[in-house]
Amino acid sequence: MGTEGKSSEGPAEATPDGVRAGVAIHGTGNCPVVAASNAHDGPITGVNWTHAGDTHTEEFRARDPDAVEDAEGVPSASSVIDLGSERVYRYDRPDDGACACRIIEELDCPIADARAEDGVLLLTLHLPDLERLRDVVSALDGVVERVEVRYLVHGATGGDELSDRTLVDRGRLTDRQCEVLRTAYRMGYFERPRDANASAVADALDIAPSTFAEHLAAAQRKLLEETLAGN
C-alpha cells in the first residue's frame, strides 16, 4: 500500500509547562560555603558538589581569597586553581544527609545554578510544573529556617516564535544598590544625552562620586549576571 499524500511528520509536540524558579534558602546551618559567604564581599559563585562514599565535596569560585581562608567556624578550604579575578576552592565534609542541595536532587530536580551571598543559599531550578516547586519547599521544611521564592518565570506559551523571557531578581541587590539605581534612573543618568551626571546623582544621594560609581558598578554587574545567565 503506497504512502502518497500522507505526511511523514508526527503530531506536534506540546509546549512544556515548566517554570524557572529562583529560590533563596535561609538558615542552611551545615553548609560551609554559605557560612563563608558571610565574610565574602559579593556572591560566592560556581557552587557544585560530588559525593564519594561518606564524603561530600563542594567546589566554588571566590573573588576574595582572604575571606574564604580566614572564615571562622567552617572546614579548611583547599585552593585548587587561581583564575586571576577568582580562585577555585573545595571543601570536604561528611555526607550527613541534611544538605539542602542534596535533598532537592533526591526529588529528581537538578540544580541549574547555585551561589551563596550574605549567608543565603541562592538556587536556580528548572521544574516541570509548580507542583514540583511545592515539593521542594515541603522537603526543606524543618531542615532549613526559611525558603523564599524570589522569582518565577513560566516558559514560552507556544507558537512559531518562542519568547526570550528574562526576569531580573532584584533581591540580589542591597538596599543601597537599589537606591542608587533608582535615583540615577529618576534623575536621567541613563538617558542619552544624560540629564544628570555622576556628581549630580552622588550629591542627591549625599555620597562621594567614587562611592556612587562603586555602588553602580556592583549593581550593574549583578543585573548583568542574572540577565546573561546561561547565554
Structural class computed from helices and strand pairing? alpha+beta
Strand content: 25-35%
Determine the mean pLDDT: 80
Number of E-state strands: 8
How many distinct folded domains?
A: 2
Approximately how much helix is present in the residues?
25-40%
- Radius of gyration (Å): 22 Å
Low-confidence parts, pLDDT < 50 over ≥5 residues?
Answer: 159-164
Question: Total number of helical segments?
Answer: 7
Quick structural summary:
With 231 residues, this protein is of the alpha+beta class. The chain has helices at 32-37, 65-69, 100-105, 130-140, 175-186, 198-205, 209-227; strands at 19-26, 45-52, 55-62, 78-82, 87-94, 111-117, 120-127, 146-154.
Describe this structure in words.
The strands form 2 sheets. A 4-stranded antiparallel beta sheet has the order 6-7-1-8. 22% of the residues are buried. The protein is an alpha+beta fold and 231 residues long. The protein is globular and about 60 Å long. It has 2 domains: 136 residues, no CATH class; 58 residues. α5 packs across α6 and α6 packs across α7.
Protein topology:
Layout: E1 19-26, H1 32-37, E2 45-52, E3 55-62, H2 65-69, E4 78-82, E5 87-94, H3 100-105, E6 111-117, E7 120-127, H4 130-140, E8 146-154, H5 175-186, H6 198-205, H7 209-227
Keywords: Transcription, Transcription regulation
Domain HTH bat-type: 173-225
Pfam families: DmsR_N, HTH_10
